[in-house]
Design a protein that fits this description.
There is one protein chain. Helix content is 51%, strand content 17%. It is α+β, with helices and mostly antiparallel strands. The protein has 2 domains: 29-174, no CATH class; 217-319, no CATH class. The strands form 2 sheets. It has a 5-stranded antiparallel β-sheet with strand order 1-2-3-4-5. It has a 4-stranded antiparallel β-sheet with strand order 6-7-8-9. Helix 4 packs across helix 7 (100-108) and helix 13 (253-265) packs across helix 14. The chain starts with a helix and ends with a strand. The relative contact order is 0.11.
């Protein structure tokens, strides 16, 4: 009986090995090019290039899945996933208007995309997995990057007569981590400290990085009054009373009138301005120029800019950038 079990187990191993060998194929030139396109794009860190290297149907699948989850979340009166993926300042209506490429780019800014640059990729084998083909390749690095050849795995999808990359499973796993809250998006105050503490060679070891401070009562009063003005729809007062005199001097009368008109006309514009004020309110600033400028790192918060600046003029705080 025991020998029969062993024979059956050996037969199963032989069958499995044969089946796997039968599913393996040689790697075509178009598959090598598709894999190289993806790895080269990831190596540059250009999120748009990465999106263009991925099959459009894969990006559409990601967009449909994310938007559906955000709609279900909004129906429950929640916004946790939206904030984790896009930042507090990006409303769901704006996300729904994003193309699949732009939605991927917005999320990719919060991910870690890493790949080595290669001069050449040689396909070793391709294994079919339903509609996907997993391609194993050996990459030759540029001469200045060393002589070690690195093995890469890229999943591809048919694209007409050519091939395009599927969304890498590592990227999907990172998105799932963000949605589930298993990783924490760095806060702007932490980023301000980290920017000086990570060794880049640009900062002397004897120079301490700037230390974020708390918002002063005067700053909080400015933020509260500016928000109240926008909530009440008084855009003219917002731009004329809360913008720094120096900033207003750089704006022509026509430009200032256009900004006020856009604010009056668009609820989305007012919501963005209000969101910025609320983000700054809970963010620790770095004070510069003897404490007369407060600089906030707002990167990754869904705002169309990475920093927000207040300045003090004649003892009063104004919005400077």
């Amino acid at each position: 009986m025991r020998s029969l079990i062993i024979k059956c187990a050996l037969a199963f191993v032989v069958f499995l090995s044969t089946a796997m060998a039968a599913s393996a194929e040689s790697v075509s030139g178009s598959q090598e090019r598709a894999a190289l396109d993806l790895l080269a794009a990831i190596a540059t860190g250009d999120t748009q290039a990465v999106a263009f290297a991925i099959h459009p149907s894969e990006l559409d699948r990601l967009r449909i899945m994310i938007v559906q989850r955000l709609r279900e979340e909004a129906a429950r009166g929640e916004s946790v996933i939206r904030v984790r993926l896009f930042g507090d300042a990006t409303p769901i209506g704006e996300i729904e208007r994003l193309t699949s490429v732009n939605l991927f780019r917005a999320i990719a800014r919060r991910l870690t995309l890493r790949a080595r640059p290669y001069d050449k990729l040689d396909g070793l084998t391709a294994v079919r997995d339903g509609k996907f083909v997993h391609v194993v390749l050996k990459g030759r690095q540029p001469p200045d990057r060393g002589r070690v050849e690195v093995v890469e795995l890229v999943t591809l999808v048919p694209y007409g007569k050519e091939w395009k990359a599927a969304i890498p499973l590592e990227i999907e796993a990172q998105i799932d981590d963000l949605v589930a809250g298993r990783v924490r998006v760095p806060s702007s105050s932490a980023a301000a400290v980290g920017a000086g503490s990570v060794g880049t060679g640009a900062t002397s070891s004897n120079t301490a990085p700037p230390i974020p401070s708390r918002n002063t009562p005067e700053i909080l009063n400015l933020l509260d009054q500016a928000e109240k003005t926008l909530v009440e729809g008084r855009c003219d007062r917002y731009y004329r009373d809360f913008l720094s005199p120096e900033l207003r001097r750089t704006l022509s009368g026509r430009t200032l009138d256009a900004l006020i008109a856009a604010c009056n006309r668009s609820i989305a514009t007012r919501e963005l301005l209000i969101a910025a004020l609320r983000i700054v309110r809970r963010t620790a600033p770095v004070f510069e120029e003897g404490g007369s400028r407060a600089v906030y790192d707002v990167e990754g918060q869904g705002l169309p800019y990475d920093r927000y600046v207040l300045e003090r003029v004649d003892g009063r705080w104004f919005i400077a950038e």
